[in-house]
Amino acid sequence: MISPRSPRVTAARRLAKRNFRGKDRLFIAEGPQAVREAVAHRGPDGEATLVELFTTVEAAERYADIVDAAHAAGARVHHAADTVLAEVSQTVTPQGLVGVCRFLDSPFEDILAARPKLVAVLANVRDPGNAGTVLRCADAAGADAVILTDASVDLYNPKSVRASVGSHFHLPVAVGVPVEQAVQGLRDAGVRVLAADGAGEQDLDGELDAGTMGGPTAWIFGNEAWGLPEETRALADAVVRVPIHGKAESLNLATAAAVCLYASARAQRAGAKGAPAS
What is the C-alpha to C-alpha distance for residues 214 and 200, in angstroms, rounded to an integer? Predict the structure, then answer.
């Protein structure tokens, strides 16, 4: 049983702060789903992403498959009391498994080189829960990558990691990319760039009806409170609004992102099915 005064506990506890995460290039993933995905993930060089696992005795028995896989992956596994897990954890009610993971972000150039067909760009998104939820939506919709601009929240904020429910480990994410560079790079890679905005000149239904959504597409999603600034809107090939058919005043960021990403994914699948065989 690891001591609460162990240097390993101290090192994990300090990852609650962004400056220490950046210095160590490590972050915390909590709960069985996130830890399971971390165990399975490997970096570009084949290096294991999970480097350390703290577990209560009860959780080690309940999730023996995860703990065994962590051992097999070469992670250091520490049995810890509930009080120690509470110190390392960033949640009010820890689930008994806390993993320490290596950073996952990918170079923007690598994302472009892979010729992505569907990308989510988070511009000035400040709420970590929203960022993690949009990442989860992009993963579910089959997006190829997510890009966080230099003014957006930390990808490895504990709230963002929890909100993604393991999607951090599923698709490439570039961080700290200036929005102008992101748009230009995507456009040079043959990707049409759309800005999602409630005051957009174009309507999502109209875009779908016109058949313009089937090609490679990137969606820019803006700040939760004030949306996209005019200079960012001007960078896009089109500014598109999600139509409100009922009486709701608006959609929140994550819901709008899910609608837009799934609309593109469906249009792209329909286009692929209709494409002539080569």
Answer: 20
Residue-level pLDDT at 225: 78
Q: Which is nearest to 43 in space by CA: 25, 30, 16, 31?
A: 25
Task: Report the candidate in 187, 208, 218 with the shortest Cα–Cα distance to residue 267.
Answer: 208
3-state helix, strand, coil in the chain (%, to 5): 45, 20, 35
Cα separation, 119 vs 186, in Å, equals 9
Report DSSP state, residue 166: T
Contacts of 145 (CB under 8 A, 6+ apart): 106, 111, 114, 116, 119, 120, 171, 172, 173, 174
- pTM of the shown model: 0.91
Q: For 50, list phi and psi in degrees, rounded to 5.
A: -80, 120
C-alpha closest to that of 133 among 258, 24, 262: 258
pLDDT at 4: 85
Task: Measure the CA–CA gap between 252 and 255, rounded to whole angstroms.
Answer: 6
Separation of alpha carbons 90 and 93, rounded Å: 9
The span from the CA of 74 to the CA of 69, in Å, is 9
Task: Say which residue the tokens 């579910």 belong to.
Answer: 140
DSSP, residue by residue, 119-154: EEEE-S---HHHHHHHHHHHHHHT-SEEEEETTSPP
How do strand 97-102 and strand 26-30 relate by DSSP bridges? antiparallel
The per-residue pLDDT for range 153-169, each reduced to its tens digit, is: 999 999 999 999 999 99
Q: How many CB atoms lie within 10 A of CB 205?
A: 14
Read off the tokens for 248: 């709701």
- Per-residue pLDDT band for 274 (boundaries 50, 70, 90) equals low
179-196: pLDDT as tens digits: 999 999 999 999 999 999
